[in-house]
Amino acid sequence: MELPVSYEIAKQKIIEMWETLKPQLAIHVGLATSSKVIILEQTGKNKGYRERDITGRCPEANCCIMDGANRLDSAINMKTLCRQLSQLESDVIFSRDAGRYLCDYVYYVSLYCGNGMAAFIHVPPLSKALTANFLGRVLQKIIQEMLLQLQEILCETQ
Question: Which residue positions in the chain have pLDDT lower than 70?
Answer without folding.
Answer: 88-90
